[in-house]
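ugh ok fine here u go
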Amino acid sequence: MRFLVLGSMNIDNTFSVEHIVREGETISSHGMSRSAGGKGANQSASLAKAGANVCFAGKCGSDGRWILDLLKTYGVDVSLSIVGECNTGMAMIQVDDKGQNSIVLDAGGNRLWQEDEVKTILSSFNEGDVIVLQNEINLLPLIIEEAKRRGMIVVLNPSPFDNAISSLPLDSVDWFFVNEIEGKALTGEDGFDEILNAFKKLYPGASIVLTCGKKGAYAMVGGDICYQEIIDYPVVDTTGAGDTFLGFFLSSFLRGESAEKSLLTATKASAIAVSRKGAMRAIPLKTEVL
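structure:
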């Protein structure tokens, strides 16, 4: 089984601040750092660090080559990525003294994919391979339909959530990874049980992982629901925690582990990640999690 993450890559500029800046306010930061990010690149790194065979296909400018080089050091195949005449995606991130974050994105090359480019990438994958998608690139309807036609397992993390998600061919999605806000937006329901039951009715063939912040996480596979509470660990930076969770859960479950064990593994990995600064570099190795 091979994983394809056809997704975003960003240069993350992170500012450490006392609190998230308010409307009309100017504040000074404690410090600023530059790192590799983007949900697609982060999820690729997480899958690779968890031991999966993963290929990342991203689109960036020459200023983003170092991100691809970094992914290669984690064991990610980046040979299908495109370096073109465009800007690399950019994220301006504020992280407050409590570890919470606020993010502004500029898409850059992430939303400049052409149909022939994505079809060429997908032609390298076969039935039973897994494609992991987020909502930070364009052409998602085409990508989902083409991947499904090829017999791939389609995983969707609809983040950052917007109204365009409802226009996607969601019936073709095999796995949804959502937080409670995204789950509510997709189902119109409040409450974790209600969200899961609504998913079961709306998308009966799909499996769902629902992350609920400090309230833990749920997985629903084949109609069976399991739950994992959080592991209380010091929080330094929550950026990339969800991406870490997704990579470790998928790597574990799709290699034969139970949903319960996969939730525990993913929870351990994300607990370690939030105790460190940054996104991609904060993701632990499988040996650390074990």
